[in-house]
Design goal:
Elements: H1 2-18, E1 77-84, E2 89-90, E3 93-94, E4 102-110, E5 115-123, E6 137-141, E7 150-154, E8 158-159, E9 163-171, H2 193-197, E10 202-206, E11 216-219
Antiparallel strand pairs: 1-4, 2-3, 4-5, 5-9, 6-7, 6-10, 8-9, 10-11
The protein binds 2-acetamido-2-deoxy-beta-D-glucopyranose (2 copies).
């Protein structure tokens, strides 16, 4: 009997010892008010006053705040160009491509990174490509109705005579593979920010054996 009681007493004692006890942290000498918190913590947190009109009036830039999108790409500008045969020029003279051909040239530029992404679809563009440049799909520098040198050469859209696609991105320094009158590559020194500065001064096109001056052409603005 005595033994049993001793065991019980031991169990209760053990339980009492294992039970959580409130931990109290005594204040530091001088009390909590005496503490100097490091800058940026405690009561030194910076206070940002609301803007005129309050926080709800703020319009956040695209891709930030509540407008954040899931796209990992950041473009400083985008261009959606519909290119047609009727826009093609030899110099300033009209040299139209086929009536049923159309090109959807979609570009996204990040001028900080000197990068241009492209998503190009050509419909009813038949036959092989042809250009003295490295590829036959370009952005040229010239106003509408005029001709000018290629500044960017994109991989040619791939597919059949009714549907061709090319997607990807290029980052400077750029090379077109075509030498200008000064003997330098026409892409040398070019930066995509020049397109943003004057999109009306640039057009995009594609050249084929049948339409070497351009099968479709469209101005960036
Ligand atoms: C472009 O025009 C010039 C004359 O201005 C002409 O000599 C040349 O053959 C034309 N090019 C094409 C491919 O038609
Ligand atoms: C290119 O554009 C087409 C239609 O506009 C779209 O269906 C396709 O997903 C785009 N491709 C890429 C890689 O974004």
């Amino acid at each position: 009997m005595k033994t049993t009681l001793t065991i019980l007493a031991t169990i209760f004692a053990a339980k009492a010892l294992a039970a959580p006890t409130d931990t109290t942290y005594p204040p530091p000498p001088g009390g909590y008010d005496s503490i100097t918190y490091p800058a940026g913590t405690g009561e030194n947190l910076p206070y940002y006053p609301p803007p005129p009109g309050g926080w709800k009036s703020v319009t956040y830039p695209p891709g930030t705040g509540s407008d954040a999108s899931s796209s990992p790409f950041i473009f400083t500008s985008t261009y959606n160009v519909v290119a047609l045969g009727s826009e093609v020029r030899n110099g300033t003279t009209s040299a139209p491509g086929p009536k049923d051909a159309v090109g959807f040239f979609n570009f996204g530029i990040n001028s900080v990174m000197d990068t241009i992404c492209y998503n190009i679809t050509l419909l009813n563009v038949a036959g092989d490509y042809r250009s003295p440049a490295a590829t036959a799909t370009h952005i040229h520098e010239a106003a509408r109705g005029a001709s000018g040198p290629p500044r960017l050469a994109f991989p040619n859209p791939i597919g059949d005579d009714t549907y061709r696609v090319s997607t990807g991105c290029l980052t400077g320094p750029f090379v077109t593979g075509l030498k200008g009158a000064d003997g330098r590559d026409t892409g040398e020194g070019f930066e995509v920010k020049q397109i943003e500065e004057n999109p009306k001064g640039f057009f995009t096109d594609s050249h084929t054996v049948l339409f070497s001056l351009g099968v479709v052409r469209g101005q960036l603005a």
